[in-house]
Queue: 2 jobs
Job 1
Amino acid sequence: MKLTAKTGLCLLLTLWMGVAAVSAENRFVSERCEIAVRTGPALDRKIIALVPSGTSVEIINAGDEWCEIRLPNGKEGWSLTRELSTELPSEIKLARMEKRLEEALSQSKTAQEKMGEVASESKNVNAELAQTKTTLEKTEAAYEALKKESAEFLKFKANYDKNLKELKEAKERADKFESELNRLDSSQLTEGFLYGGGLVIFGFLAGYILKRPRRRSPLM
């Protein structure tokens, strides 16, 4: 089978790129919007895929003009070396940086909102703490007043109980004296009645004796 010069050149390029590619590496599609992936290392070969900028592809065989690559979906083909870059395209970097910046701003906004919520909650807690402190002070004052009133009440109750006991004892003594007085009055009344009655009887007898006519003596 006779080989054409073009076919031979492709074979030589393929062999040279196979020797040059010691290990697989990844490259990115360069700044262009899309690149064509062909079935061979020539512009007249059939296009099998259009790969957008920023897509990571695996290098199978690397060459100065053409590289054999493997796409993320597993397809293999050829693309121009100048259309591949070892660095991520600046447009993609910028987009990623903008996305990161947007995420950072969103996180910052969320953090600020959270700080606002914490500050508001802290303010509420401080207000509740101040109110609780005021209530505690009032409770302590009321407790002290109650304790003082309780001490005064206990003192008053002790004096009341003492006075009540003394009053009871005085009443008992008064009842005793009244009973004794009644007994003495009754005895004196009886004695007076007997004494008066005796005097009446004595007077009656004396009058009777004095009024009785005397007998004259026969000698007279």
Job 2
Amino acid sequence: MWRRGLLRVLAGLFCAVLTVAGAERTLAGPKLVFDIRTGAVLHAENADDPWYPASVTKLMTTYVALSAVRDGSIALDTLLTASQNAVAQPPSKIGIALGQSITLRNALNLLIVKSANDIAVVVAEGVGGSIPEFSAMMNATARRLGMTRSRFVNPHGLPDADQVTSARDMAILSRALALEFPESTRITRLPFVKIGDRTIRSHNALLGRYAGADGMKTGFICAAGFNIVASASRRGQRVAAVVLGENSPDERRIATERLLDLGFAAPRFGLKDRDTLHTMPRSGTADQPVNMRPQICGEKRNRPDGLPGLKEFSYSGPIVPVVFGPQLAYVPLPPSRPDWPSDAPVDEARIVVASTDPPASGDSDDAEAGDPSIPLPEPRPVRGNGLEYTGRAP
């Protein structure tokens, strides 16, 4: 009798484990790592599941803008003027003033480094004439590149239920950006941009921390979780990883580092025989994007109620897991730093971009001159200003 009871208990536990494992698979965000030169897929998880792109959308904005430069319809030194629509965008933003102008070159720098939503609209209106017209250019580009799961309705990635992508599509886009516009790496790998005495650092925590990291773009909205497209170069090889739907900036960075490690560890022989981004079998089963708002920004957001001291802790913001050496700790997310105030708008003449090229002979070799041999300071485990937007989810 007791044996039958024990078997029932064990069967129940086994079913519970399967249920939990299934839930984890459901909540696990799409991932993909690939070789940029060949397009060979080195690892993929649910790569075709639809997902909200958040600010990785700005890679498409950059691609469309650089395509317009290539076609001769606009130049990098063309001055773009901020409209009321651009000024009204929610953070993350620079705070450009109504009627103020900025070159397309510096707009793209701020678009990637700061992930500025007001600048994304400045670029879209300057290149396409309006948001709908620019969105049509984005969608036409997606179709031409073979991005079969993507649909764009805005240039910045702020919440919209109709704006979706997939890990495979973002990989296709990032590869096209890297191969067709190699100069884009000078933008995507920028560690900072200075406006006057203010230094705006990139949200990409891999820069200066992961060996060979050279771009590309992070993104966050509550519905999407923490996204990133990241690339790195070592020994003549460049690989890129797409990570969507992580629970915190630190988990996003760790997952990306592991994928890039996996990419560099893959045997170099036989890459031509691997599936490519366009030939890889369908990976994933979802038809609708997962809405991560409850676990990222809702009342039950990743908050371990049983941790010592939490009952007395009055902080009402998000609590996220952070890795300290071999240990996992849960810490409060600090409040965001204020955005550039509207009464002190960006001044085109005061923008200083960190160079990513080795200094020429006679050039200054300090950190601001962009000497890559000078290491950047270690990023803090969690940076409040990495939260780009926490508005209403789709």
